[in-house]
């Protein structure tokens, strides 16, 4: 019984470690910025300015899940997608909706070429995506001619800068924010109860009801704070809805589908997965095409947010995506989409908090590096502790 409790505690600690870290970092920067971090406008800006972090982290998650592989080209794909979108709409006057589809197809083609080299020609992902990074960055500068192109249509800008039903209010409360809060709270409670019921059904250890209740209360309280803050500003940013939808869709794919299980198997033991009938080549192909697709979506978000396509857009973003996944506990066959998203949220809070404090980019890099190292060290400590128990 005692061993079971230790196992349960260790498992919960490992799962909740990132949440605890996120809360601590948020509180620290909230104090250091004298509450500026928690202002409604700033909370809205955190989501809008750092949307690319979460979108890229979702794509990078599956790459790293295959066995610690990464995609070094995502930052350049972000820049290339913005360049393609700008040329199509501003130079050739193609309708925005058509241009978006064409840009997404461009990202899929880029990902398909890289994935083909990785999956079928056995080029190491590091080399293939490094080459892709150089090619895409060069194409971005070539397409734009070294110039910045702008502005874009209001419809396209809405993707990254728009708010859902911002003027639909009851008193001072945004109706859409309240609806989202109620639905999210109900979904969290039902999901937790269903998860608990399934674990009990299969004889697994479950946490005490008191711990489950405290956990739900804390999550719902944070959700309420965020949504009420958004309600006090302009409501829910449209890009937040996009990020939430992507998180839910890819969480379902990773945890509930055959493709997700096969990718986890590849990360655990590629040879065993292949002998078990997993089509490892096609899984790698799908993973890297998806990574490029997510980078293209992130590129559209960045371009819409800036209302401009620049040759330097996306520079260094691949490192932020890798750091977000690593901080979120993604390694080999372990980790989850939600973990990667939480890691991206940590990076977003760091970026925003350090910007408010006026820290230089050099010092920001030092702090990010230290936090990344601490996160990995903590994860390794918990793994070793779990093995010893």
Report on the structure:
The chain has 16 helices and 4 strands. 77% of the residues lie in helices and 2% in strands. The chain is an all-alpha fold. The model is unreliable at 1-12 (pLDDT under 50). Helix 1 runs parallel beside helix 15, helix 3 runs parallel beside helix 10 and helix 7 (154-161) crosses helix 13 (280-306). A hairpin with a 2-residue loop joins strand 2 (169-170) and strand 3. 37% of the residues are buried. It has helices at residues 2-32, 40-49, 51-65, 74-91, 96-119, 125-144, 154-161, 175-201, 209-232, 238-256, 258-268, 270-275, 280-306, 317-327, 337-356, 361-388, and strands at residues 163-164, 169-170, 173-174, 236-237. The strands form 2 sheets. A two-stranded antiparallel ribbon has the order 1-4. The chain has a two-stranded antiparallel ribbon with strand order 2-3.
How would you describe this structure in keywords?
389 residues; two-stranded antiparallel ribbon; disordered N terminus; 16 helices; mainly alpha; two-stranded antiparallel sheet; 4 strands
Number of DSSP strand runs? 4
CA-atom Rg in angstroms: 21 Å
Q: Note the gap between the termini.
A: 13 Å
Low-confidence stretches: 1-12
- Category from helices, strands and their pairing: mainly alpha
Query: What is the oligomer described by this structure?
Result: single chain
Largest sheet properties: 2 strands, antiparallel
Number of helices: 16
Question: What is the overall pLDDT average?
Answer: 88
How would you sum up the global shape? globular
Approximate helicity band: over 70%
């Amino acid at each position: 019984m005692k061993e079971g409790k230790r196992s349960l505690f260790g498992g919960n600690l490992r799962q909740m470690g990132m949440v605890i870290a996120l809360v601590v970092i948020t509180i620290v920067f909230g104090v250091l910025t004298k509450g500026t971090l928690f202002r409604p406008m700033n909370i809205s800006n955190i989501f809008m300015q750092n949307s690319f972090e979460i979108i890229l982290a979702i794509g990078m998650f599956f790459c790293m899940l295959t066995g610690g592989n990464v995609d070094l080209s995502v930052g350049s794909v972000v820049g290339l997608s913005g360049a393609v979108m700008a040329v199509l709409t501003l130079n050739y006057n193609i309708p925005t909706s058509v241009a978006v589809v064409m840009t997404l197809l461009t990202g899929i083609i880029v990902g398909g070429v890289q994935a083909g080299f990785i999956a079928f020609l056995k080029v190491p992902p590091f080399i293939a995506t490094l080459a892709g990074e150089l090619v895409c960055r060069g194409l971005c500068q070539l397409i734009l001619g070294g110039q910045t192109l702008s502005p874009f249509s209001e419809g396209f800008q809405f993707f990254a800068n728009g708010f859902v039903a911002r003027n639909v209010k009851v008193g001072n409360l945004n109706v859409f924010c309240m609806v989202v809060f109620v639905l999210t709270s109900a979904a969290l409670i039902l999901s937790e109860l269903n998860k608990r019921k399934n674990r009990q059904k299969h004889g697994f250890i479950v946490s005490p009801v008191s711990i489950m209740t405290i956990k739900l209360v804390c999550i719902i309280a944070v959700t309420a704070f965020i949504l009420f803050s958004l309600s006090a500003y302009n409501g829910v940013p449209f890009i937040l809805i996009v990020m939430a939808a992507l998180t839910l869709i890819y969480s379902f794919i990773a945890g509930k589908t055959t493709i997700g299980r096969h990718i986890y198997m590849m990360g655990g033991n590629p040879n065993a997965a292949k002998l078990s009938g997993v089509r490892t080549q096609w899984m790698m192909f799908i993973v890297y095409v998806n990574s490029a697709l997510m980078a293209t979506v992130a590129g559209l978000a960045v371009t819409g947010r800036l209302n401009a396509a620049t040759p330097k857009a996306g520079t260094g973003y691949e490192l932020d995506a890798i750091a977000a996944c690593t901080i979120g506990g993604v390694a080999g066959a372990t980790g989850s989409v939600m973990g990667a998203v939480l890691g991206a949220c940590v990076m977003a809070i760091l970026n925003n908090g350090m910007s408010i404090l006026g820290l230089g980019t050099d010092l920001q890099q030092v702090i990010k590096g230290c936090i990344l190292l601490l996160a990995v060290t903590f994860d390794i400590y918990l793994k070793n502790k779990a093995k010893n128990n």
